[in-house]
Amino acid sequence: MNSKITLSILFITLLSTLVFADAPVPASYWNLTVAVAEIVGKFDDDCAYPNLAERGTIVGGLLGSDEYRNVLLAEFYQKLLQREPHQSGLMHLKDLLANGATEKDVITVLVDSNEYWIKNGSTNRSFVRSLYDRLLDRQGNYDQNEIDHWVGRIQQSGRRLVIRGFLLSDEYNRKFIAKKYSELFNRTASENEVNHWMSALARTENNKLREKIVRAILTSDEYYNKLGNTTKKLIQQLNKDLLKRTVRFPL
């Protein structure tokens, strides 16, 4: 690896950390970043990097960050338990993610909790209806036969296996693919794109579907090109999409 590439990667890494919401960044950090940028000669808005591998490094760093896990888990708590996470529960789930658990594993833990059971009626039927509403976004659009089927499965195998059945279903996966294309590309996923991912799931373990799709979208040329191929805009948009906050660069 030559020195210019090394400096470019250092610059990207520095930019990835020089983001904040309310707290100021130490001047020494900015000075170091600007110094490296001047050497590389790519701090202007019209810079045309990083390449795919470097974008993967940035995205991977954000997806693996403690802050991203906080944001992700807060969203799960709001959607599934309608509250902010307590510190003890948050730390437990973050530890699971850090040790290889997937997002679907975390969702399973929350939905299989006593709190979720109580908040959703404490009966098998009300529980199944909640799975259609919260996991598949059906919002009451299901029939009695569907409810009866899953109630029977709960009686045979327990709630956890039924939760996994919903999370591994084609309907769940298709809706997740469509949602991420809409959120991150700001467009509708084509049938071919959805089928591409569904075909991949047929060949591999689909428990990491969320992570794979999000990473593929955020490192794609389409995502990067829509930002005008600039590093600063990439960092800003990634922080907005993943960390739900605004990046401010100094003028």
The radius of gyration computed from the alpha-carbon positions, rounded to a whole number of angstroms, is: 21 Å
Query: What's the number of extended β-strand segments?
Result: 0
| Poorly predicted regions | 18-27, 32-48
The helicity comes to 55-70%
- Main β-sheet, in a few words? none
> What structural class is derived from the secondary structure elements?
mainly alpha
Beta-strand residue fraction: under 5%
What is the tally of helical segments?
Answer: 15
Alpha-carbon distance between the two ends: 32 Å
Q: Note the run of SSEs as H and E.
A: HHHHHHHHHHHHHHH
Overall geometric form: globular
Average pLDDT rating: 81
Chart the SSEs and their pairings:
Elements: H1 3-17, H2 27-40, H3 52-63, H4 66-81, H5 87-98, H6 103-111, H7 114-119, H8 124-134, H9 144-157, H10 159-167, H11 170-185, H12 191-203, H13 209-218, H14 221-225, H15 231-243
